[in-house]
Design a protein that fits this description.
This protein is mainly alpha-helical and about 80 residues long. The protein has five helices and no strands. The protein is elongated, with a radius of gyration of 24 Å.
Amino acid sequence: MSMLWEKSETWRWLVRKTRDPKRFFFAFATVCGVVPGGIGYCVMQLTNTRNEQLEAHLHQTARPESTMMGQVNREAG
């Protein structure tokens, strides 16, 4: 792992750029953190659709112990 920061010119360039000018650091942090987080949130919102028919089928075919645990969880919450 030490080879990364001892010999990699790209790594040294990145360290120099993020150490001195704060503007580059914030841009880099945004690209590495905020952008993937925003994309992930959008993907989750697009793929999280409720399917009432599937939920009804799962409730009908649930095992008794699963139904009992669901009731316990509802009462506790």
